[in-house]
Amino acid sequence: MSAEAHAAEHALTAPEYIGHHLRHLQNKSEAQAIVDWSYINIDSVFWSVVMGALGVFLLWKAASKATSGVPGRFQAFVELLVELVDTQAKGIVHNATSRKAVAPAALTVFVWIFFMNAMDLLPVDLLPRIWEGVYAAAGHDPHHAYMRVVPTADLSITLGMSISVLLICLYYNMKIKGVGGWIKELFTAPFHAHGPVGTILLLIPNFFLNLVEFGAKTISHGMRLWGNMYAGELVFMLIALLGAAVGTTLSAGGAGLWLLHILAGSAWAIFHILIIALQAFIFMMLTLVYIGQAHEGH
After folding, report:
1. Is residue 5 one of the residues assigned to a domain?
2. Are the CB atoms for 109 and 284 separated by under 8 Å?
3. I need a surface site. Which of 62, 82, 86, 94 has the fewest CB within 10 A?
4. Structure confidence at residue 10 (pLDDT)
5. Which active-site residues does the annotation give?
6. DSSP letter for each residue of the chain
7. What range does the domain containing 57 cover?
8. Apex CA 105: angle with CA 96 and CA 152, to 5°?
9. Is-contact 38 171, C-beta < 8 A?
10. Which pTM was predicted?
11. How many alpha carbons fall within 13 Å on the CB side of residue 236?
């Protein structure tokens, strides 16, 4: 079979193109169930670790090069970011001892999520095409090479981060209020009753509402970030399809779509920079708010 015939055979339609880019590189070929803990999105884990390492390295680099004199641009930017996070932490978490751990955690969350979100600014086909080449060189069909490079567009990653925040909140609930005090609060708040009979009647409703509160915070925390980044990723894919038009036809219409692809992609990328930073900031602020609430009683 000629190269042209092979390319024609494997040419993707628009829905197939989108579907291909939405498939994860997993440790197994096909999922057998909607929820299966044995399936791992290797690409999401890999890029989240890489972005986390990059964020830690840059913060370490700034700290190691910090001077008491006039700071350089990079040091000044990092100091501004640290001061911003520290100011927000002081206004939300009033326990000075807790802030020694909470503020650095919030800074790490912001930088980490920002870098993971920023992967969306790369050309849609850049890293997937490189991966297809590696896959083909290993003797596999490149059309089965899946690679998604925006970890925060993967719900498992964002929910994993929000669950980590939940665990931190539970830790501070028990640390600040004591295990017994926190358990008592689960059954006696937010509805406070006068007398033993009222207290007993409200035990189950209070406990249920507290469970709902913890669950709603955690799910909304993760899904808010995922929803925005997933939508942004889809828009970039749709814009990329406009550029593909020039590859199928050299007509004036195809060239016009390609030009529209350049203009729309540039405009959306510029606007998306705001979304990237805003979503990282919102996730960080909610992290501080939820931890701050763990220090307070109902």
Report:
1. no
2. yes
3. 94
4. 52
5. 220, 224, 228
6. --HHHHHHHTPPPHHHHHHHHT---BSSSS-SSSS-TT--BHHHHHHHHHHHHHHHHHHHHHHHT--SSS--HHHHHHHHHHHHHHHHHHHH---HHHHHHHHHHHHHHHHHHHHHHHGGGS-TTHHHHHHHHHHHHTTS-GGG------GGGSHHHHHHHHHHHHHHHHHHHHHHH-HHHHHHHHHH-SS--SSHHHHHHTHHHHHHHHHHHHHHHHHHHHHHHHHHHHHHHHHHHHHHHHHHHHHH--SHHHHHHHHHHHHHHHHHHHHHHHHHHHHHHHHHHHHHHHHHHHTS--
7. 13-29+39-294
8. 150
9. no
10. 0.88
11. 27
Cα–Cα distance measured from residue 62 to residue 58, given in angstroms and rounded to the nearest whole number = 6
The answer to whether position 196 is within a domain reads yes
**pLDDT surpassing 90 at residue 220:** yes
In whole angstroms, how far apart are CA 232 and each of 229, 264, 271? 5, 13, 10
Q: Assess if residue 7 is contained within a domain.
A: no
Shortest CA distance to 117 belongs to which of 261, 12, 229?
Answer: 229
Contact between 295 and 95 (Cβ < 8 Å): yes
Looking at the DSSP assignment, which residues form a beta bridge with residue 26? 41
Q: Which two tokens stand for residue 237?
A: 């894919």
Virtual torsion, Cα 42, 28, 23, 41, nearest 10 deg: -20
Q: Number of structural domains, the chain?
A: 1
- Tell me the C-alpha distance between 283 and 269, whole Å: 21
From the list 52, 90, 85, the residue with the least C-alpha distance to 283 is 85
